[in-house]
Amino acid sequence: MFTRHDRRAARDRRHRRVRKHVAGSQLHPRLSVFRSLHHISAQVIDDSRGHTIAAASTQEPDVRKQVKGTAAGVTAAAAVGRTVAERARAAGVSAVVFDRGGYLYHGRVKALADAAREAGLEF
Question: Which residue, among 89, 39, 79, has the nearest Cα to 59 in the 3D structure?
Fold first, then answer.
């Protein structure tokens, strides 16, 4: 059985391995996902300047109004995906590079990515 520390270390190793190849630029910033037990958040990051262009989380009141229930589900992740895509489009970003953050592309992470695509982000 894995302990919490082992799981965290394994995710960190996977994330570092992915980040060797995935980097955001001004033309294609990085859409980074962080998933916790109770919340999910996403950021659109320009790695060349080190700036966050847009961000959204289930802890924000705007997203909580859309969800009306638990903040940890697939519907909440989809709301975060839509919100971050709308904010990125408002900032002039239309295409991004997806960074799953070492998590499996399944469940909440996939729901966030699909909702961001539907809202107009290309990746």
Answer: 39
